[in-house]
Amino acid sequence: MRAEQQMAPATAQQNLVSLLVARAARADVVGATGYEGGTWKHVTWGAILAEVRRLSAALVGQGVKPGDRVAIFAATSLRWCVVDLAVSAARAVTIPIYASNTPEEVQYILEHSGASLLFVDDDVPDGRQPGRLSRVRACIARTPAVKSLVLFDGTPGGANEVAYRDFIAKGDAVEKADPKGFETRVAAIKMADPCLFIYTSGTTGNPKGVQLTHGNWAYEASIVALIHLMDSEDAVMLFLPLAHSFAQVVKAAWLSMGFRMIFSRGTDKLMADLVETAPTILPSVPRIFEKVYEGVVSNGSSAPGLKGRLFRWAMRLFDAYVEARLQGREYSSLSFALAKRLVFSKVRVTLDAKLGGRVHLFVSGGAPLSRKIAYFFDLLGFMVLEGYGLTETSAAATINRPGKAKIGTVGPPIPGCEVKIAHDGEILIRGPNIMLGYYRNPEATQEAIAPDGWFRSGDIGEIDADGSVRITDRKKDIIVTAGGKNVAPQNIENSLKTRPIISQVMVYGDKRKYLSALITVNEEAAKRVLAAASAPPAQSYADLAKRPEIVKAVQASIDDFNAHEPPYNQLKRFALMDHDFSQETGELTPTLKVKRKACTVKFQAILDGLYDGEKVTI
Hints:
This protein is an alpha/beta fold. The chain folds into 3 domains: about 10-280, ANL, N-terminal domain (Rossmann fold, 3-Layer(aba) Sandwich), CATH 3.40.50; about 285-355 and about 360-475, ANL, N-terminal domain (Rossmann fold), CATH 3.40.50.12780; about 480-610, GMP Synthetase, Chain A, domain 3 (2-Layer Sandwich). About 40% of the residues lie in helices and about 20% in strands. The strands form 7 sheets. A 5-stranded parallel beta sheet has the order 4-3-5-6-7, sandwiched between helices.
């Protein structure tokens, strides 16, 4: 199908540094808010541009030339964006590295990209991993192309290490010698020039470097303004990793529209950050919605006395409402109207306060959002707009529009982008958002992009009569059972994750007689199950997962799921894992999606045990 035929506005021809310069024409307007020195601080557009100018000059003085690669290994922050924009203003290419990457992954990206300079933020331990500076130092000797390591924080410890404050100060002399150098370099940027090489998560092998151009990002920036997704008065909370294309679209929109960006301290402090800064828009991945939903349902269901009974009654009615909507039917009753007034209105007030009190829009991307969770937020009066895209499409290719969202779809294509369905159901995409190609991998580029420009997404889907796209699953993830039935595992996983007791799910069963699953439990919900059964508290997560009360609760959730599914879609066996999946233990991507291939390899013995008739012991 062809996309809407609106033309993108003139900003589609302006690179992101030019947009920053335009924003800074009102130098005293606050452009960003970040946490520093124990408090939230506002930064003006004028100050942001001034730092970008100095750093860009310092890069040039360091010998960085057009086309050189400069890597950033840091958590999401304003400084991350400043470095990124300064690299662009030096006409070099930014190489983002996920803050959660291991030393081996960092080494591969640095070697493959040929980065000559690396910025790293700090050495604070990250979950089970050492700090990023320690991870870099563990691999830097094996990446001789990297000539300098610039430290945001901490004390330099080697001849090739330099503090950020000292590095940027070198730009003053360069600026003085050539006061118009910044403007000259920015004016020389071409839309076809590479801007970023974003490396894919690499769940099935080494990651590929996706070459995205200045034109790609200028186009995406213009689209956000064109469809009125945000406006200049908004305050947008960003916690997403800037090594992911979703966050890069938010960054592009920030520069294009001039709203205030609030840089979160990370997912572990996100809820506190929302309350403290009161944003109006939250771009997010589905896992955050899942956790919020799990928290609401778990707390409400376990409430004592009449309050708990009312909540459980209301949720039963909500389940009936969702079932009707999934079948395309309307649902209304006096009981449901009463539940909305007595229960869900209060849930809305409580949740609104926990989100800071001003959020009027959520944008969901990075993975499919459960329709049940989408209906829950919609019922509470929160607008959630789900979009779709890949790294190779500069993130957004389709998105639901404000006031016109269709739950269960990712909306129509963005203006100027075309989407169609191939004969085998694969989604094909063509437009100004398509990547230049994979860096140093022409074979993979040729496989991904047809000669006529259509990008093969690897996703299976359909387009409805209104032009909205519905994603079924990843083409490579489709399970074909021994009986020849095609099963979309993501649909099953999304449904099961709406059960309070369940945290993560990975469905398995390709070429097997039946489906099985690896399951992790929601620790807080599981503790409540033990307390309700007057059982002794668990000594650890592993102990929790072994308890018969927990196994029984998970089995009940699976039985409820199976009761509404055809036999080939039912889960016959499962294994409860001795830890919740995480990035640190290697089961989740930086956007909190399960690494299906990696988990299959890592837990192959457990999966095989689910088919040998023997009891599985974790």
